[in-house]
Amino acid sequence: xxxxxxxxxxxxxxxxxxxxxxxxxxxxxxxxxxxxxxxxxxxxxxxxxxxxxxxxxxxxxxxxxxxxxxxxxxxxxxxxxxxxxxxxxxxxxxxxxxxxxxxxxxxxxxxxxxxxxxxxxxxxxxxxxxxxxxxxxxxxxxxxxxxxxxxxxxxxxxxxxxxxxxxxxxxxxxxxxxxxxxxxxxxxxxxxxxxxxxxxxxxxxxxxxxxxxxxxxxxxxxxxxxxxxxxxxxxxxxxxxxxxxxxxxxxxxxxxxxxxxxxxxxxxxxxxxxxxxxxxxxxxxxxxxxxxxxxxxxxxxxxxxxxxxxxxxxxxxxxxxxxxxxxxxxxxxxxxxxxxxxxxxxx
Length: 347
What we know:
By secondary structure, this protein is mainly beta. The chain has 1 helix and 26 strands.
């Protein structure tokens, strides 16, 4: 294994971490010369570090105090060096086979090596494989310093040709190549696949009260609501039982949200009519289906009838379109764009 010391690398590449300037202020002095990178400077007054709001350091040449210094105040300006070691020369070290560089040789070769150090404030570029070695190796992307910025991991970025990319998770000594693999195959039309190995379950958890949504061609196809209801293509609803809509009044025009429901028809004042709209008004999908339960309680006007808008064809046995008896049912199903069939206890 090779331990890379950042201080050694930076010193070998003539890199300076800090530079400082010291002044004894005159009465009322606010401006002090300094060479710095904007955003990488600290100012001390009589040994106390000033807050960012107590000075302005915007041009890399001067620091201006918000409040004037008093005579003989000691002003220290410390400039930090913003360091990037992506182009720094790494030491070439002879290795013994099995101690980090397989087969021995030098780090100058395009080889697999183990990196045993922290790269905290630098860009790391490697040709080959970078291996993290510890009892609990951790690769962290981001810190408090990124604030609202975007942190990301990119695999395969910068390509000039087609090739696959994948991420493997290994958690056992049986499937040592991968237990879970997320892969994108080569090419603009390459398939994306999630592979799971072993007899353990493959789970997808939403730990909070949020829906799970599945889409194709940027359109929602299936939704699992937080309560567990499953809606497919906004038409087929799978629940613990068929959803029920209670409908009252003399005339009820079917709505898209009625699809897949039992319409419980109640009216104490008169008969009730169910109206089937034209597809141009309400575009039920072909295959849409609703069932109706008659519970009309008026002494004489107590039939449940069905009517259809202009351009709509309604098929039924012997053209019957009335559910006359209380607590009997009928089923309405869409066969084509403007063609429906009504079946059940009809008269």
